Amino acid sequence: MMDAFTDFDSGDEERLIRDSVRRMVQERRKPIVRQGSIVAPGTHARGYLQELEALGLSELMLSDGNIDISMVRRIAILSEEAGAGLFITPVIESIGLPLLACTGLVPPGAGIASPGMVLTAIAEPFAAARTLPSVTSTSNGQLCLSGTAGRIPFAPMADGFLLAANNQGTPQLLLVPAKGTDFELTPEPMADGSERGKLVFDGFRLSPACLLAQGSDATKATDILLDVLMLSTAAQLAGIAARVHDMACDHIRTRHQFGRVLAAFQALQHRAANDYVAVEVTRAFLYQVCDIWNEGETRRALLHALLVKSAQTAIDVAKSTIQMHGAMGFTLEHEVGWYLKAAIVASTRYGDLAAHRRLFADSNLAYW
Predict the structure, then answer these.
(1) Dihedral angle at the C-alpha atoms of 129, 133, 138, 140, nearest 10 degrees?
(2) Disulfide: which of 78, 171, 227, 328 matches 218 by Cβ 3.0-4.6 Å?
(3) Are 214 and 169 contacting, i.e. CB atoms less than 8 angstroms apart?
């Protein structure tokens, strides 16, 4: 996959990471089409994640100390290859706790007593009218959680949540266990076979130990998580775009029509060239953002722009690939349609594209 594209890896270590992930994704993921029946890739999310963990990639992505450029480049590589392989799984959402431990914003060892998979649950982060769940303290020192958190990616498969909340104007970051609790979780199926969920809390009681950070530390932790999640999502979209363009090129090189190979038709050559340029620009932008990771406000503004660019490229190139495949591209038996569905779902995972465009425009970024 992506052999015809520019190598943005900085050295042998990053190439080794990419090759390892690519090999695992391509060899171990469940086939989408089995004897004519469709298996939605997102239905295997937990299994995919277990494969990644078995490969030891969570430890490989994390580093001692703060989140640095080399770490986010590794996250981008893993996410890009996961997108290319339709490995629809909470790649980065599941490492929120150890990732924050690298920054020192949460207590050392936080969440160790919480078994299973803890997912990041920052609901509708860039919605114009966003209301966080509220937290109050009870007379016996417990925390009382009320309110809703909607559109949480992969929520039904989580064993716990990193939840952004509000305590009388003070931001808080909580660790909320999902197993054996009585809050309401409503699953919402997505087009790519994955699920998101809505959490509803009505006086839900938590131990004080579940409070991981508050005030400015909670705000910083939430912002860091959002930045990494946006980067990972954009990388997945870039991987989707690169993979479907490979599929289009393979098809027009081998398919014949009117006695000629499709690649001989100038209209298809021009379309393939335009798609190639779009993918190359998107991937270059992705690794450019990785390399300015330490530039604060510039990073957040460019992440909004990157997510819009990656989503638009993935959706447009997937549509182009479907058209170049002709009638077979529209059938459920061909996997290119699943790439389009995955791109559409990922593009709205952390805010819609209109919100990201607005936030980039509001940043007044003097970067170019």
Answers:
(1) -160
(2) 171
(3) no
Give the integer Cα–Cα distance in Å for 305 and 358. 10
Type of residue at 230: M
Most trustworthy range by pLDDT among 254-258, 269-273, 296-300, 305-309: 305-309
Q: Please, are residues 198 and 149 in contact by the beta-carbon 8 Å criterion?
A: yes
Give the model's pLDDT for residue 63. Answer: 65
Pairing of strands 118-121, 160-167: parallel
pTM beyond cutoff 0.90: yes
CB 127 within 8 A of CB 355: yes
Q: pLDDT, tens digit, for every residue of 293-313? A: 998 778 999 999 999 999 999
Could you tell me if 197 and 203 are in contact, meaning their C-beta atoms sit under 8 angstroms apart?
Answer: no
Phi/psi zone of residue 203: left (φ > 0), alpha (ψ -120 to 50 degrees), beta? left
Contacts by 68-74, CB closer than 8 A, 24 or more apart: 68/293, 68/294, 69/290, 69/291, 69/293, 69/294, 71/102, 72/228, 72/231, 72/290, 72/293, 73/10, 73/14, 73/287, 73/290, 73/291, 74/14, 74/17
Domains of the chain: 107-217 (2.40.110.10)
Q: Give me the residue label for tokens 């998101």.
A: 196
